Amino acid sequence: LYQVPVRGLTPVPVDEIAVADDGAVNGDRVLGFLFADAGEPDEMGWRGKTSFLTMQNTPAFARVDARYDRDTRQLSLCYDGAEVVSGDATSEADRARFVEAVTALVQGFEVNPLTEESRLPLRLVGDGVTPRFHDRKSHHVTLVASSSIEALAEQIGDAVDERRFRMNVTVDGVEPWAELEWIGQTIQIGGAEFEVTGPVVRCLATHANPVTGERDQDVMQTLTREFGQDKPTMGVLAVPRVASTLRVGDEVVAPAR
After folding, report:
1. Are 238 and 196 in contact (CB under 8 A)?
2. Burial degree of 9 (CB within 10 A; 0-12, 13-18, 19+)
3. Which residues contact 93 (CB under 8 A, 6 or more apart)?
4. Which DSSP string do the residues of 26-50 spell out, in sequence order?
5. How many Å apart are CA 151 and CA 160, to the nearest integer?
6. pLDDT tens-digit profile of 183-203?
7. Among 2, 71, 193, 245, which is least packed, fewest CB within 10 Å?
8. Is 80 left (phi over 0), alpha (psi -120 to 50) or beta?
9. What gap in Å lies between CA 137 and CA 42, rounded to an integer?
10. Tens digits of per-residue pLDDT, 27-84?
11. How far does Cα 188 stand from its chain's mean position?
């Protein structure tokens, strides 16, 4: 199980996640660094992923490690093991410090979207509580089978870190690509029912190593070339029927193949 408190950063492993009845994952994508030219949000405060600093446009962003306490709103950002900045993510003064530190850091990266002046100044957005800055306007739990990642790794010829895909749930003990066959069906996780609504099509962010920040694996091309996919797909979207809490070790019950 994983949460991503800050949009675009490497997922943080957790022992449990609380899921609202609309599919929102507690503590997930509650903050983000927004480009100045992102435009106006929709009525829910949502913006698409191209509006934010992410591993898609800033692969070395993966080297930033975020630790966030939802109860106290304290955020700490470290780079290569050293703290860069910390403070209250909801304080305007501290937000300014976060923006200054992250801007200076990103401007030193080889792949740097901030060379476009229209993207400055960055803004740290989000109330630190509401899950808001996902790839899609509607909320979903994202899920992938570990065996699918292993099948990809076999074709790439190297281990593939599951955090590369920034999913909420990784499922063990099923056949490769079994999760894609669950689309349109109902599964159970820890006794809670989820409707599997669609696939997750991947982007350039998956090419970034979640530790080194280097684009070191051609994930999208391998998925389409070696597995015959029309679009590079890894994982699925799921929506709960009722609010639930998922825990590491919960049993997943899926339709028979």
Report:
1. yes
2. buried
3. 87
4. TTSS-BEEE-GGG----TTS---GG
5. 10
6. 999 999 998 999 999 999 999
7. 71
8. left
9. 9
10. 999 999 999 998 766 555 778 888 999 999 999 999 999 999 989 999 999 998 899 9
11. 22
